[in-house]
Design goal:
This protein is mostly helical. It has 3 helices and no strands. The protein has one domain. α1 packs antiparallel against α2 and α2 packs antiparallel against α3.
Length: 81
C-alpha cells in the first residue's frame, strides 16, 4: 500500500509538472484542471505527512517533490491569470 501511495505521488508530481509546463500557455480563464491538480497534490502531501517513518528517505524525498509540484502548479496558475 505504501508503494502505491508513492507511485500515486510520483504520478501526481509528473502530471503537475507536465501540465504546468504545457497548460500555462493555453490555460483558460477558469483553470479547473490546474486547481484540481493542486488539490490532488495537497491531498497527497497530507497523506505523506501522515505516513509513519521515513521509508529509507523516500517519504521525505516524495514530500519535497510534491511541494515542488505544488509550487509549479501555483506558478502556472499565476502565469495564466
Amino acid at each position: 500500500m505504501i508503494l502505491s501511495k508513492l507511485r500515486l505521488t510520483a504520478l501526481a508530481v509528473l502530471f503537475a509538472l507536465f501540465f504546468g509546463a504545457l497548460g500555462a500557455g493555453t490555460a483558460l480563464a477558469v483553470q479547473t484542471h490546474m486547481l484540481n491538480a493542486k488539490h490532488d497534490l495537497e491531498t497527497a502531501l497530507g497523506e505523506l505527512n501522515a505516513a509513519s517513518n521515513n521509508k529509507g528517505g523516500y517519504r521525505v524525498n516524495a514530500i519535497r517533490l510534491v511541494n515542488e509540484a505544488i509550487q509549479q502548479v501555483n506558478l502556472g496558475i499565476q502565469y495564466a491569470q
